[in-house]
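Q: Hi! New to this. If I give you a protein sequence and the SMILES for zinc ion, can you show me the bound structure?
A: Yes, paste them in.
Q: Okay, here:
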Amino acid sequence: MNYMKCQHCTEYSALKSEYLTFCDHCGKKFPVIYKDWLAHHPDGNLDAFGLENGISGEEYAALERRKERKAHFTPRKKATLAFGIICFVAVLGLSFLYGPYLMAFFREPRVSPTLLHADQWRTFKGHLIRIQTPLSLRPESPDDRPNMRKKAFQAGGRAEGIVIRMEESVFLAQASVVLEEAAQLTAREMETRPGVSRFSYTSRELQVDGQPALLQQGTYVLQETSPVAFQSLVFVKGGSQVQLLVTHSADDPAGKQAADKIMTSIHMN
Ligand SMILES: [Zn+2]
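A: Thanks. Here is the predicted structure of the protein with zinc ion bound:
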């Protein structure tokens, strides 16, 4: 069956019989009706008339399907889709603009090669030892306990990619501190800090200006995500002990270079 399109309301009416004269929807008369057409087409039939002046059943079905899909696509759905597209474009734009910054933010901090330049290095003098350092160590408020005075100095952080820390303890009730015990305790302290896991190290004895010291070199993982390398040197004298601790990202060659340079710069006062 074919369908006739109304010129007034644009709706289609089924060409059910040769008598179709008025639109099924608005009641207006069709401009061409079969009887008039047949007068000029003596060999014609209803099907030929329908195809010439209207559309086929298949075309009509396709139009109906399209109409139905449009009806399902409500303004609410349109708004949701538009919002989705806007969000997608915004995220895409932001990642183009801030991508490098975000990558730098999530990447492990690294030591800048300029930090290794010798003219930036200075001497830091503690109670027992002095070192060469690329960053100024600042004192933290003293952590005094009964029978112990503890002073800490620290430099660096996330921005620098390296942390340099000197911790001096004076045991007021002890005439002497055993180097091995002191080194084990400082390692244990590092291992039990919050967020530290997979802590491992090797230890070796070395001499600082002829005096024995213990150097611990190892790695741990911070907050399950950041591999950290550390070098910790422990030195004792009488009832005093000092720990020099340098930490940096485990896979940062510049950090390792800086740490090695600090560690080999140690001298007794
Ligand atoms: Zn109509």
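A: Helices lie at 34-40, 46-53, 57-72, 75-106, 179-191, 253-263. Let me know if you'd like me to explain how to read the tokens.
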